[in-house]
């Protein structure tokens, strides 16, 4: 069976003055795949993601996301995706219910859809007793879970997660990844950036960026075999040394 491409990137670059943040990267992502976009802080991951979600224009190259050109059809790209930013994107001074209603409206859902989705989301996260609490009062782990769930409100084809588990404890990280698995099982494509190399093990395939370029792309198992190492962290260290 032929895999369905949901992201296709060809020679995509982003330059700021003389600085090349993303250097002619090419890759494909398939429907229902958990695709890890890995690299150290400053490697170009977030810059590349911003081009793919239509909020930063590429300097050169091509990219199709959910079949839409990121340069000429940014509005359709934005409608087809969910996005969870590195910095928590909910409003601390609104309640859980108000946040869900607000973002549901942005995503173009009807009042009935928002009501239905709110009840379902609150039940899944077991937040019934906290629905009228300010989001600012929630622990970080709960904020992250809520933010992920809200990014899925409009049932997007692809969800982009930028460092979604930064700063949370190991147990919450594991729970968050269980939510990711459940969503991928429904056919949603998950595109996740992280600098936690152990999280690469949870992905179907990973791309490793070093200084703006993709230095490796394969399954975690194949990459460890290729570089003859025991962990993805060791793979990354080998690649970083090679570039130096």
TrEMBL record:
InterPro entries: AAA+_ATPase, ABC_transporter-like_ATP-bd, P-loop_NTPase. Residues 7-236 form the ABC transporter domain. The keyword ATP-binding applies. Keywords: ATP-binding, Membrane, Nucleotide-binding, Transmembrane, Transmembrane helix, Transport. GO terms for molecular function: ATP binding; ATP hydrolysis activity. SUPFAM superfamilies: P-loop containing nucleoside triphosphate hydrolases (SSF52540). It is a multi-pass membrane protein. Its main location: membrane. This is ABC-2 type transport system ATP-binding protein.
């Amino acid at each position: 069976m032929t895999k369905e491409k949901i992201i296709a990137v060809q020679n995509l670059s982003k330059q700021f003055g003389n600085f090349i943040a993303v250097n002619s990267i090419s890759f494909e992502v398939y429907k229902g795949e958990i695709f890890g976009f890995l690299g150290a802080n400053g490697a170009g991951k977030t810059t590349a993601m911003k081009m793919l979600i239509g909020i930063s224009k590429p300097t050169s190259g091509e990219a199709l996301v959910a079949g839409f050109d990121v340069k000429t059809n940014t509005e359709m790209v934005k409608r087809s995706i969910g996005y969870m930013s590195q910095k928590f994107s909910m409003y601390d001074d609104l309640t859980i219910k108000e946040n869900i209603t607000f973002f549901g409206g942005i995503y173009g859902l009807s009042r009935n859809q928002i009501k239905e989705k709110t009840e379902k989301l609150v039940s899944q996260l077991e937040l019934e007793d906290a629905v009228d609490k300010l989001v600012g009062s929630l622990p970080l782990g709960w904020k992250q879970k809520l933010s992920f769930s809200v990014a899925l409100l409009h049932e997007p084809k692809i969800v982009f997660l930028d460092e979604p588990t930064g700063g949370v404890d190991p147990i919450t990280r594991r729970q968050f990844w269980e939510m990711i698995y459940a969503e991928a099982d429904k056919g949603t494509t998950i595109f996740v950036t992280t600098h936690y190399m152990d999280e690469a093990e949870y992905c179907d395939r990973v791309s490793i960026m070093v200084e703006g370029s993709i230095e490796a792309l394969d399954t975690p198992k194949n990459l460890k075999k290729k570089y003859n190492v025991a962990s993805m962290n060791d793979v990354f260290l080998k690649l970083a040394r090679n570039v130096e």
